[in-house]
């Protein structure tokens, strides 16, 4: 029978009292280990002391897709999925959408505090004067096929920024970090609009620095022959709210990509390009487009019961419903819904809205959805707003990428300053064979 032995751990991370430990008994050896619990977690590296012999590598945890692994400590964004709460730097998203602007929220995400009046003026000024891109970027975008996906163009042009600003590789230099932060937030709408105009075969529109951040983006998208583009304030406001709602969402797929790539100490443009690439994927940035297709397919409110029966049979999913983290109404969906009416008042009614409202009502009355905690997510209504703004569906994910840049940059800055972070390098469970000898070609 194996003897029982307790292994205590001293030093940093030791439990404050006897309750803050996890006792683990390894039935292979009979040894018991006490692993400190801090912030509701154990350190995976603590498992390495659990060995069957001296030359054993030690126990690892296996967690594909990080379903139950905290990869960092972060003070930026908090989500309570059960309550349906989202805070940035402790401030609820509802208050930010009501009182703030996207650029102020970007400052909050990056610096951790709301700016004073002077700080905000300086911040907005610095971003505004960096909205132009090098003329060669235009030539670079011109090189794409006429029907290139705008997200592919954005991905390439954000990565290309690193070649225009090679000093950005000095990631420990505060001045360079500030410049990269400003440039990324400032130039992302310009790059996005260039991609859109390229698809349309329209001349590129230079930034108009008299306009506010969302208004300037609308101008770069839609300005034609008029001398000055005057954005409709209702549309500008709705776009600003959409930007706030998409600014950050803690350790999602693209943010994790920015952190992982940035952990190699590459320049921030390259790290953010990794975030754009991750967002490009349909499991991350593409659901709002699927909602519009679904609403078009349903066609009229009288077809909703039949459609929902099909969903319940498992024929398809109710797009824009459900979320891995939110098991309650996604707070962002509630806020967007309030702005849909204002936008449609400016642009004219969209019959798809009636279908969406009725669909939501019926689904929330149905035990299939409520028992599975399926509620509308951010994508249920956002596509309707983009459609009303006459933004083509290919551009939806690009518009997500513009505000998410503030989140990516703030998470990158936090990661660079975190003394616990090293190059991200997971372990694996090797499932291959070997060792075996190389077989020359003639003997295969
Ligand atoms: N319609 C119908 N049933 C659903 C839906 C849905 N939209 N979402 C989940 N379910 C059901 C599943 O069939 C499953 O039922 P079961 O227990 O009888 O098998 C149960 O609810 C749990 O579903 P999971 O797939 O385990 O939930 P998961 O957390 O893995 O998926 C996801 C979350 C991917 C968002 C899912 O709800 C979904 O596909 N929704 C539709 C797509 C969508 O709107 N995506 C946008 C998410 S928000 C964003 O990324 C910005």
Folded structure, characterized:
This protein is mainly alpha-helical. It is 48% helix and 5% strand. It is built from 17 helices and six strands. The chain has helices at 93-99, 102-111, 117-128, 135-142, 150-164, 174-200, 213-222, 233-245, 253-262, 268-280, 287-298, 304-313, 331-347, 351-364, 367-371, 379-388, 396-416; strands at residues 6-7, 21-26, 31-36, 77-80, 85-88, 91-92. Helix 9 packs across helix 17. The longest helix has 27 residues, at 174-200. It is globular, with a radius of gyration of 25 Å. Residues 1-15 have low confidence and may be disordered. Residues 284, 287, 311, 317-324, 372, 374, 377-379 line the site of acetyl coenzyme *A.
Condensed summary:
The protein has helices at residues 93-99, 102-111, 117-128, 135-142, 150-164, 174-200, 213-222, 233-245, 253-262, 268-280, 287-298, 304-313, 331-347, 351-364, 367-371, 379-388, 396-416, and strands at 6-7, 21-26, 31-36, 77-80, 85-88, 91-92. It is mainly α and 444 residues long.
């Amino acid at each position: 029978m194996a003897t029982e032995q307790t292994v205590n751990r001293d030093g940093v991370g030791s439990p404050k009292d006897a309750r803050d430990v996890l006792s683990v008994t390894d039935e292979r050896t009979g040894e018991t280990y006490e692993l400190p619990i801090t912030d509701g977690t154990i350190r995976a590296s603590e498992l390495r002391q659990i060995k069957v012999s001296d030359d054993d590598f030690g126990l690892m945890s296996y967690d594909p897709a990080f379903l139950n692994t905290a990869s960092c400590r972060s003070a930026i964004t908090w989500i309570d999925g059960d309550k349906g709460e989202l805070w940035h730097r402790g401030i609820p998203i509802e208050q930010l959408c009501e009182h703030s602007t996207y650029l102020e929220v970007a400052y909050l995400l990056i610096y951790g505090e709301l700016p004073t009046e002077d700080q905000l003026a300086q911040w907005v000024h610095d971003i505004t004067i960096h909205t132009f891109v090098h003329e060669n970027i235009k030539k670079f975008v011109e090189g794409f096929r006429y029907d290139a996906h705008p997200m592919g163009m954005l991905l390439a042009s954000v990565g290309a920024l690193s070649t225009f600003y090679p000093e950005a590789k000095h990631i420990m230099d505060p001045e360079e970090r500030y410049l990269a932060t400003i440039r990324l937030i400032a130039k992302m709408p310009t790059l996005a609009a260039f991609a859109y105009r390229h698809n349309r075969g329209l001349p590129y529109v230079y930034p108009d620095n008299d306009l506010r951040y969302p208004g300037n983006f609308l101008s770069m998208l839609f300005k034609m022959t008029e001398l000055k583009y005057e954005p409709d304030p209702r549309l500008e406001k709705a776009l600003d709210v959409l930007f706030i709602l998409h600014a950050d969402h803690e350790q999602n797929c693209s943010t994790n990509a920015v952190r992982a790539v940035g952990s190699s100490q590459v320049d921030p443009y390259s790290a953010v390009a990794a975030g754009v690439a991750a967002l490009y994927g349909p499991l991350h940035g593409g659901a709002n487009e699927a909602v519009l297709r679904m609403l078009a397919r349903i066609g009229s409110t009288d077809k909703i019961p039949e459609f929902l029966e099909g969903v319940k049979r498992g024929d398809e999913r109710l797009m824009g419903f459900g979320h891995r983290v939110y098991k309650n109404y996604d707070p962002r969906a509630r806020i967007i819904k309030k702005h849909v009416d204002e936008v449609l008042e400016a642009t004219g009614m969209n019959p798809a809205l009636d279908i969406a409202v009725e669909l939501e009502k019926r689904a929330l009355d149905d035990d299939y959805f409520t028992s599975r905690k399926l509620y509308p997510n951010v994508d249920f209504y956002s596509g309707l707003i983009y459609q009303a703004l006459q933004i083509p569906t290919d551009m939806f994910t690009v518009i997500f990428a513009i505000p998410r840049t503030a989140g990516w940059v703030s998470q990158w800055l936090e990661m660079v300053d975190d003394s616990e972070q090293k190059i991200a390098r997971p372990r694996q469970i090797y499932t291959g064979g070997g060792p075996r000898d190389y077989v020359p070609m003639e003997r295969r």
